[in-house]
């Protein structure tokens, strides 16, 4: 008896010692096939410098359907990994509508903060109900807050695909938020002006969003003619130049200043319309307008980088809709109609920039060709296989919506709409007469990157009552597109020195039960799960009883 008691005491003491030691040593094993709980080096670095509590409120609690329960569990697992790296990471799950007396008021307040709700169907005990869920997290540090979207919606995605896309996005989303809160010195972006580029109000949502990452300033090229050295010196103070839908030709002097900036190591993001055409131009009595080539004097500039911008329009059977009014006065009706000159572009998911994106909306986009050069080129976006190009000048008419397209003509698709160019850039004016005299001319530069997109309106947000709407939102059809996320990814890739954006390439696969098999084999598995244990219990009981009877006679 004493020996048994002593053994029990020893076991208890050993367990206590092990628990005490475990409190000092933390270890987790990631046994998943895709290593989804193993954080990348860039993600770990994003939380390394926090010296004060980082409080994360995840608005994902309460009565949730299975897909959101899975998302909640995956979010918890991921944040536990971050918290194991830095003890200042604290998180909790809350239901923002729980206990609210004025639910509509709470929903309105959350929407005002930019937290878009999701309506989901919940089935419980044979009853179906609609629930409003806010799949967001709020990351708070000192006096700053960053919103993190947890749900990734993609057009036509199944429930499983939606959960997979969301889980795959989690590590980057939180690491990106931590990086925003911990930025000590922001890089600088120059918004190029002076050649009829988009007005600030049409880029307001995008510029407001990227202020979390970067400092923004405007550089006007008008002064190049009088003081080119000063303009170039100002431009060199920025890490990237953003040129959004210029409508006036660049002079050779302006191109040379941009060339010297890029050859010297400056990154650049170009959104170029080679054709002058706007939807508003069609709203006249004839319902027609002429699409004309736009001379920006940039052909030789891009040619040196192995890019040829074509003066054409992409016509695509994968399109986004426009809304036209019929009737007059109070009897007017607004109907969405197909518009083949507004391609709906799906990303190939073959690069950190375009991976796991919602479809993008282009408007009167042109195409480009890639040419042989010394630089590496990665096609980021293309039109669908069922698309074609149309040369200009060309009359565009609204009544094309009433004429079914001839599908046999759409046999030369996959037109390039966006390309990334990387390499050690040489000056486009190399071995040419220079249009300007500068104190120092750079002919060969360091490793560099640029992105060229064939639609200036890709960055353009709509306006309502004089106020800019969110980029990617179409107020006429109430649809959201992935324009903003794609363009943010472009900047982050061009300016990212930490490799953080490469997290977007991480592939995650969440295993799901086969609903069809569940329905077909439900009865069988119920019998196995309930009947088999009962049968085994009866068999073992009978065997034990028989053995005891033979051995002891009872």
From TrEMBL:
Residues 186-490 form the ABC-type uncharacterised transport system domain. It comes from the Bacteria. The chain crosses the membrane at residues 525-544. Keywords: Membrane, Transmembrane, Transmembrane helix. Residues 33-139 form the DUF7088 domain. InterPro entries: ABC_transp_unknown, DUF7088, Motility-assoc_ABC-rel_GldG. This is Gliding-associated putative ABC transporter substrate-binding component GldG. It comes from Arenibacter algicola.
């Amino acid at each position: 008896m004493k020996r048994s008691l002593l053994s029990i005491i020893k076991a208890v003491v050993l367990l206590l010692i092990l628990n005490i030691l475990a409190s000092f040593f933390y270890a987790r094993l990631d046994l998943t096939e895709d290593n989804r709980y193993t954080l990348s080096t860039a993600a770990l670095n994003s939380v390394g410098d926090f010296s004060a509590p980082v409080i994360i409120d995840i608005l994902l609690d309460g009565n949730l359907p299975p897909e959101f329960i899975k998302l909640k569990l995956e979010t918890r697992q991921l944040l536990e990994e971050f918290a194991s790296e830095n003890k200042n990471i604290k998180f909790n799950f809350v239901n923002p509508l729980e206990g609210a007396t004025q639910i509509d008021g709470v929903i309105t307040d959350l929407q005002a903060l930019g937290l878009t709700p999701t309506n989901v169907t919940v089935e419980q005990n044979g009853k179906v109900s609609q629930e409003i869920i806010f799949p967001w997290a709020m990351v708070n540090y000192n006096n700053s807050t960053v919103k993190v979207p947890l749900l990734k919606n993609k057009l036509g995605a199944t429930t499983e695909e939606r959960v997979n896309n969301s889980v795959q996005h989690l590590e980057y989303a939180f690491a990106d938020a931590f990086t925003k809160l911990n930025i000590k010195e922001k890089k600088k972006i120059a918004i190029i002006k002076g050649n009829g580029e988009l007005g600030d109000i049409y880029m307001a949502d995008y510029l407001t969003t990227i202020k979390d990452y970067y400092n923004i300033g405007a550089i006007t090229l008008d002064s190049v003619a009088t003081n080119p050295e000063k303009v170039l010196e100002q431009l060199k103070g920025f890490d990237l130049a953003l040129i959004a839908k210029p409508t006036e030709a660049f002079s050779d002097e302006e191109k040379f200043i941009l060339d010297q900036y890029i050859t010297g190591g400056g990154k650049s993001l170009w959104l170029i319309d080679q054709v002058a055409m706007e939807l508003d131009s069609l709203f006249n009595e004839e319902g027609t307008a002429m699409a004309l080539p736009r001379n920006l004097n940039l052909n030789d500039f891009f040619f040196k980088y192995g890019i040829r911008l074509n003066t054409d329009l992409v016509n695509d059977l994968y399109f986004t809709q426009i809304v036209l009014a019929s009737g007059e006065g109070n009897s007017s009706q607004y109907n969405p109609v197909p518009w083949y000159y507004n391609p709906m572009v799906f990303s190939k998911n073959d690069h950190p920039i375009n991976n796991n994106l919602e479809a993008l909306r282009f408007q009167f986009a042109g195409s480009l060709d890639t040419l042989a050069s010394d630089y590496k080129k990665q096609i980021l976006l293309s039109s669908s296989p069922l698309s074609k190009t149309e040369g200009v000048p060309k009359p565009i008419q609204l009544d094309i919506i009433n004429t079914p397209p001839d599908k046999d003509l759409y046999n030369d698709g996959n037109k390039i709409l966006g390309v990334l160019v990387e390499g050690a850039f040489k000056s486009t004016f190399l071995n040419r007469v220079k249009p300007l005299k500068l104190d120092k001319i750079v002919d060969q530069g360091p490793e560099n990157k640029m992105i060229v997109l064939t639609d200036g309106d890709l960055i353009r947000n709509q306006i309502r009552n004089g106020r800019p709407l969110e980029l990617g939102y179409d107020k006429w059809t109430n649809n959201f597109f992935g324009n903003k996320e794609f363009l943010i990814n472009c900047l982050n890739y061009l300016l990212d020195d930490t490799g953080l954006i490469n997290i977007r390439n991480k592939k995650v696969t969440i295993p799901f039960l086969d609903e069809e098999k569940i329905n077909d084999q439900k009865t069988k598995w119920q019998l196995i799960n309930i009947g088999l244990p009962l049968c085994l219990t009866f068999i073992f009981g009978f065997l034990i009883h028989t053995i005891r009877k033979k051995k002891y006679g009872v």
